[in-house]
Design goal:
Layout lengths: L5 H9 L1 H11 L5 E2 L5 E2 L7 E3 L2 E3 L2 H13 L3 E2 L8 H18 L5 E3 L13 H5 L9 H10 L7 E4 L5 H11 L3 E3 L16 H18 L2 E6 H6 L4 H17 L7 E7 L4 H14 L4 E6 L9 H18 L3 E2 L12 H17 L8 H21 L13 H5 L3 H14 L18 E3 L5 E3 L33 E6 L7 H12 L3 E4 L6 H11 L3 E6 L4 H14 L7 E6 L5 H14 L8 E3 L5 H16 L2
Parallel strand pairs: 5-12, 6-7, 7-8, 8-9, 9-10, 10-11, 11-12, 15-16, 15-17, 17-18, 18-19
Antiparallel strand pairs: 1-2, 3-4, 13-14
Helix pairs in contact: 1-8, 4-6, 4-13, 6-7, 7-8, 8-16, 10-14, 10-16, 11-14, 12-13, 17-21, 18-19
């Protein structure tokens, strides 16, 4: 008899209009509600046989526990191409390498970026962003039917406006796991178009579906707080809030993992970080991921030396899973490059003797992280008394009603209790300022700690940090900056924004996920002289010319300096070709006046803008 899944069926009934929109947008058959009000087309929960293999989140539970026995993290490589055929073909290189090494992988199949967007409210954004960033919902199903996940369990990234719909598709397809990020990843990371509350609610629905269907979950992520200059203790507090939602949803902790960055800068700090999380979190597993904003060289051999530092830390810290990296600065890697990264990573794991390191620094830093997390959590949950790590367990979360907990999370994000300097969500309050100190640890600048949280519990930098006064606007020209298409990557464009503001310009910053035409129209409305657009998914050749075209239709193209950034190519093998094309032909084929990719010298970018403005002024 099939397992009863009341939450899954209720969610399908409640969101049937969005499910129909998902079906139409992505061309896949989804569950439906019949004339009697009953849910049809919903496959059985896991464990379930799909294409001759019993699929289940517990396949990943077994792998994660295997890492504890062997002392080597299980590798979690990321590879997803634009079609099932291409993804499966490229994956063969990884599978062959795994066979040679005698290991089982936990493959992260990256999905197309369109799935960050609500298919009912954001169909236009979906339509203009197709074909980049990874595999489609239909491709997921085809990939499994080709043999994907047969030997090596697979997960898909589901984060976005309607995470729960993506999880339903993954269940139908036969993916063992997924990632959600209801508190951190989706909104602080800038995925989707909706407000914080909608994303937390839909994230909770996704956890409920995973709980009833035995889907393995990367629940939330320290990595995405680290990416946007947040602190370790802030990340831990937010992860604990996500775990509160997971407990309310009755997810098995054996199906839950937390993703963490390891920096490889200060091994003692990395060990303290993982220990602090391991001793506090409810989830059974940790997925360690190398920091990817240290600008590794665009050279596959040198890059592996760079990432080897993080692999050593992941092993010594006892991570259950580890994501090898390849071609990080040039786009989605080929399967061949990822296979080499898998070999290099396994070589590090097997060639590194695991020893327990005892050092007072580790203990002090671990307690500092926990103290910050407890202070933030205490404020977010409006507790009168300071919480202690040992209190935060399943019984603790049982005292909260699910709606009450969601309300507290949303209020904490909007009031500045939960805060990072470069949070992506448009309705989050931003106040804090942080500094990465020479020891590799990010701490707050005094006077700029989270609002509503007692500063005495916050780690404060001892370095002499001069906070620049808000740069006065001294130039008359205005600058509009935005990412275009279904792209939530805003770290680079944030850096460009800060450099331009420092030069005295007023910046109208639209953040992530904008229609090209909207950016041009905002430029017209604000009478901007400069427009900068970015896309990290390789959609620039399609989207950048649309900004130019709309400016032309508005009669403004000749008056506006138009520059672009991001990755000109989506895939590793295309990168060199387009770099050469730009060098030989310029950027006219992109519809822009210049292109500034990863590793750009920000001063050079600002200097170029000023030179172009001067040219237009002197015409």
């Amino acid at each position: 008899m099939a397992k009863a899944r009341p939450n899954t069926e209720r969610i399908i009934k409640e969101d049937i209009d969005r499910i129909k929109a998902y079906e139409k947008a992505f061309g896949v058959k989804m569950p439906y509600v019949d004339e009697n009000g009953e849910v049809q087309g919903l496959p059985d929960a896991y464990p379930r046989e799909v294409n001759g293999v019993i699929r289940s989140g517990y396949r990943l539970t077994e792998l994660g526990r295997q890492a504890v026995k062997t002392g080597n993290p299980v590798q979690n490589p990321i590879l997803g191409r634009n079609s099932a055929e291409e993804t499966y073909r490229e994956s063969q290189h990884m599978y062959d390498m795994a066979e040679k090494l005698g290991i089982t992988l936990f493959q992260f199949v990256h999905s197309e970026a369109t799935r960050h967007i609500d298919p009912l409210d954001g169909i236009e954004l979906i339509e203009q962003s197709r074909g980049k960033g990874g595999i489609t919902p239909a491709g997921e199903r085809e990939f499994v039917q080709m043999g994907g996940g047969s030997k090596h369990p697979i997960r898909i990234n589901a984060t976005g406006d309607t995470t729960h719909l993506n999880v339903l598709n993954a269940l139908i397809a036969g993916f063992d796991g997924t990632d959600l990020g209801p508190v951190i990843h989706v909104h602080f990371g800038g995925r989707g178009i909706h407000d914080f509350r909608t994303k937390v609610v839909n994230g909770y629905k996704a956890i409920q579906i995973c709980a009833e269907n035995n889907i393995f979950v990367q629940l939330d992520t320290h990595k995405h707080i680290n990416n946007i200059m947040g602190t370790d203790g802030m990340a831990l507090a937010m992860v604990l809030l996500s775990e509160g939602l997971a407990v309310k949803a009755k997810l098995d902790r054996a199906l839950s993992a937390i993703q963490m960055n390891v920096a490889g800068i200060n091994i003692l700090a990395d060990l303290a970080l993982v220990k602090a999380f391991r001793e506090t979190i409810w989830s059974e597993f940790i997925i360690a991921v190398p920091e990817t904003f240290q600008n590794p060289p665009a050279d596959l051999i040198a890059e592996q030396a760079h990432f080897a530092r993080m692999a050593v830390t992941a092993k010594l810290a006892g991570a259950n899973f580890y994501r090898p990296k390849a071609a990080e600065n040039v786009g989605i890697p080929t399967g061949e490059s990822m296979a080499k990264a898998i070999w290099a990573t396994q070589n590090v794991f097997e060639g590194t003797y695991k020893v327990e390191i005892h050092d007072p620094f580790i203990d002090e830093r671990k307690e500092e992280i926990k103290t910050e997390a407890m202070a933030v959590l205490t404020a977010a949950l409006k507790r009168d008394k300071m919480l202690k790590p040992e209190e935060i367990n399943a019984e603790f979360w049982a005292q909260y009603d699910e709606h009450e907990l969601i309300d507290l999370i949303v209020e904490a994000g909007k009031s500045g209790i939960l805060d990072t300097p470069r949070a992506g969500g448009w309705d989050l309050k931003r106040f804090v300022k942080t500094n990465r100190d020479k020891d590799g640890i990010r701490r707050y600048v005094s006077g700029y700690t989270p609002l509503g949280v007692d500063e005495k519990y916050m780690p404060i930098t001892k370095e002499n940090i001069e906070i620049p006064k808000e740069t006065p606007v001294t130039k008359k020209e205005k600058v509009v900056l935005a990412t275009v298409g279904a792209d939530a990557h805003v770290v680079g464009i944030n850096m460009v924004k800060e450099a331009i503001q420092k030069a005295g310009y007023e910046v109208i910053f639209l953040r992530g996920m904008n229609l090209p035409e909207t950016v041009a129209e905002v430029a017209a409305e604000t009478k901007a002289s400069v427009v900068g657009v970015s896309n990290l998914l390789g959609l620039g050749m399609t989207l950048f010319p649309r900004v130019s075209k709309r400016l032309e239709e508005l009669g403004l193209r000749d008056d506006v300096v138009l520059l672009a950034g991001g990755r000109i190519a989506e895939k590793e093998e295309e990168h060199a070709m387009y770099e050469k094309k730009i060098k030989e032909e310029g950027t006219a084929f992109l519809g822009v006046d210049n292109f500034f990719g990863p590793g750009t010298d920000l001063d050079e970018c600002v200097k170029w803008i000023e030179e172009e403005l001067a040219k237009k002024k002197n015409k």
